[in-house]
Design a protein that fits this description.
Length: about 400
């Protein structure tokens, strides 16, 4: 079944998801969706394999050299066949302390790769979470549109009846019909945006079906302590940790380079044979890196300095991001507090009751109601921005 799903087009997957939801599959919350995306996302799977390959490559740099085997037959005039032969088996290796130094450098390089992988994973899950937050806002907006359409249908039926009885004019009936057309247009736009966001989420989930119909945002504890947030971000930010690991690896590589003047050692076994004699011996030799090591120290020093500067820049960027996002979060929180959502819904109910009772004209009703709906829409958008900002602030917890 999984193989069949893989080759289906996104619209088919979307249809399956809707059908599964309709027959009673329990909708998933954001955490469940993120765990599913983490399992099924193709980019993350590719990144995991690439990270593993890079780590193995780092480990392979500290392997011993391959052994060498040489065999030389010798022929002499006047002697039939081979007169003598020589077999040489050698094994070369670096000075022993170099292996320990490279191992330390390799550990930090692998740590940097793990942090880089964590940053990619975090960003993918954050993108998926933002899609979920957008779907929550679209679901809330759809509920509001449904409520508006319900009220418009009831008012249309009421005023058409009044029109027949002579208690209402055609302008009022037409105004309600125009409101219904506006609502239908907004509903179509909402459905299109919802479908687009869901298809993007399904693509991030490897086109495997999922259901998400929540209209409630996750709760965050109120954030007031800037210092606590700063300490958490600076200690857990994946990109900052990767930059730090790269700087540490570069420093360890400097230690490797300081020992690069040490000779390479070569040991081996030699066997010589002739017609009437055989001899065995050992081979011990070495090589001095006089030419192969030229300018390498300058290269490594420049790389270490570059890694340190990148770390400093990453810290500055992280500090600036913490400060700016904390300030933006406070502003959005204050903006949300300025909206009294309960009062706005209560006002809509009172306006609706008033127009039904004939205390308010339909024109006056829509003038007042439109202002309330605009405020509710603005609140939903601000709340969505706030939720995305909080997700960004706590992205390293994903």
């Amino acid at each position: 079944m999984n193989e069949e799903l893989r080759i289906m087009k996104p619209r088919h997957i979307l249809l399956i998801a809707c059908v599964l939801s309709a027959i009673g599959i329990q909708a998933q919350n954001i955490e469940e969706v993120l765990r599913q995306v983490e399992r099924n996302n193709k980019e993350l799977q590719a990144q995991s394999l690439a990270t593993e390959a890079d780590k193995l490559e780092v480990m392979s740099r500290n392997n011993l050299e391959d052994p060498s085997v040489e065999y030389s037959p010798f022929y002499t005039r006047g002697i039939t066949g081979m007169s003598s032969s020589e077999l040489v088996v050698t094994q070369g290796f670096d000075f022993p302390t170099l292996y320990a130094a490279r191992r330390q450098s390799g550990k930090w390089q692998q740590a940097a790769l793990d942090c880089q992988h964590q940053a990619v994973r975090r960003d993918i899950l954050l993108a998926a979470k933002n899609l979920c937050l957008d779907l929550i806002m679209l679901n809330q907006q759809q509920q509001l549109l449904n409520e508006r359409m319900k009220n418009a249908d009831e008012l249309l039926a009421l005023f058409e009846k009044r029109l027949q009885e002579g208690d209402a004019g055609i302008i009022e009936v037409n105004k309600i019909k125009m409101e219904r057309m506006n609502i239908q247009t907004e509903a179509a736009q909402n459905n299109a945006a919802h479908r687009t966001a869901l298809q993007q989420l399904l693509a991030m989930n490897g086109n495997m079906p999922l259901t998400f119909s929540s209209d409630t945002y996750p709760e965050f504890p109120e954030l007031n302590d800037y210092n606590a947030l700063y300490d958490e971000v600076m200690a857990t930010d994946a990109e900052l940790l990767a930059a730090d690991a790269n700087a540490q690896a570069a420093q360890k590589e400097l230690k490797v380079q300081r020992q690069s003047w040490l000779p390479k050692i070569e040991v081996g076994y030699r066997r010589n044979t002739s017609l009437d004699e055989k001899s065995n011996g050992f081979l011990i030799g070495g090589s001095l890196p006089v030419f192969s090591n030229r300018k390498k120290r300058k290269i490594v020093r420049a790389q270490a300095l570059s890694a340190q500067l990148q770390l400093d820049n990453a810290r500055l960027q992280a500090e600036a991001q913490v400060q700016s996002k904390f300030n933006e979060m406070q502003q959005l929180r204050e903006a949300m507090k300025a909206y009294d959502v309960v009062l706005m819904h209560k006002t809509l109910r009172l306006l609706y009751d008033a127009v039904q009772a004939g205390q308010l004209s339909i024109i006056e009703f829509y003038v007042e109601a439109d202002n309330v709906y605009k405020n509710l829409q603005a609140y939903m958008e601000i709340e969505n921005r706030y939720q995305k900002l909080m997700a960004e602030i706590y992205k390293n917890r994903l």
